[in-house]
Here is the input.
Amino acid sequence: EEERMGEETLSMLEDQSLIAPPENAEEIEKIFTDSGGSLKIMEFGKELFIPQYKADSSVLIHYSDKTAIRLFYDSLHRLTKKELWKMESVQNASITLVESYEYQENARYASSKTVENNEYKLVSKLNPDGLIVEALKYSIGQDSALSLVSKSSWKYDQEKRVTEELVTEYAIENDKEIPVNEKKQKFLYNEGADLYEYYENGILKIKTEYSEKGKYATTIFFDTHSSVTTWYEDYVKVRDLYITDGVKVREKVYEKPQGKAE
Here is the structure.
């Protein structure tokens, strides 16, 4: 049924003389209905919106400049699939991207989301609040074989703010997927004294400590021996401090630009 509806729509879109506005079309809304008063086509400038209905689902098609987007909804009006089409003609139409959504019973938000094109496939898990907690990215090879590229995970606080993001990158060695690089970001929210940390393979690389608005200090760790800390006021750099083995080796104080003086 879904395939048949798609073929009918693509055939209709091919004859642009029937529905497509001229190149100099003004952005005027036009609505076309059937004999029962149901919406068939809504035209706005050079864009077309075409709804299709079935007993337990519906489809909305958005067409503009040789690109068509098909949105599929279930009986609860939840988005279940999104297709992006390149529309040279009906014979030369092709899907360039597909998004699929799965839900738990009557849940408002999807529990999983899959995005796929000709090169990559991204499979995400979502929590009951609709926030992504895990994402697996695969490359698509010959015969549609999947190879894991990266695995990402997120943690949130009670206010739905990200507290941690972990990205692990993979490579193929001896026909096995092995982790080769890990990047972690941590966010601590503490009523104005917020803290940000960035790690690579478990080693702290960047730390930013916030005090009041526009005022913060960022430390970059070059290795286990040396670092530089930069202080900002009103989002402007005011001071650099270079440390090696716990000893100050250089300090630079910047003049405040005009208009920033106390």
In short: Confidence is low (pLDDT under 50) at residues 1-22. Helices lie at 2-14, 16-19.
